[in-house]
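--- STAGE predict ---
source: upstream dedup step, 1 unique chain passed
mode: sequence only
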Amino acid sequence: MMRLPRPPAAVVFDMDGLLFDTERLYEEAARAAAAELGHEMDAAFFRSTVGFPWLATRARLIELYGPTFAVDELRSVARRIFQDMVDKELPLKPGVAELLGLLDELDLPRAIATTSARATVEHHLAAHGLAGRFHHIVAHDDCVRHKPDPDPFLRAAGLLGVQPEHCLALEDSHNGIRAASAAGMMTVMVPDLLPATEEMRALCLHIVGDLHDVRRLFEIAALSP
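--- STAGE serialize ---
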């Protein structure tokens, strides 16, 4: 039976690929944008950039396509395509509503730590009426160093007023797992586009199918003597 080593005093969530099914949409948008600019981008390349901030991805794109590639135009076109997609559909990942409901019952504070911009976070939360369900947001502009550096998770713990080792971190990306683990948090992976690897298994307490499984971890903890 899956258990946590101690009851969490707070929860820190990633956003893309964990709360919202957006990584798939980002992939579709990036590949469509590349095609619009006359280039091919395969899924393997896109997935190798998941969890990285834009500057790191930008450097990878220049390395792939060459120094004359219109990398900033690609980003602009991809953003337009992505926004068109999310205006039509911004799906929640399975178990989000149920887990947040349980955390409300348990009166546990929670934060989001993401490499996305704050405006994007606020847009996505508002689209599902979730703006008031998280006590703090740590977005891209709030940190100088980003995942896999632990700074976003350490900042979230500080805002929540909880020591990192008493926080449960929920992540889908490899860089997110590296960051949460380096911050000293109890870390659970909910894989999305990226499968769990041996490295991830070594860094995580558990690897679960979805957020329903995370909710069950809390229920088990509540029943434990």
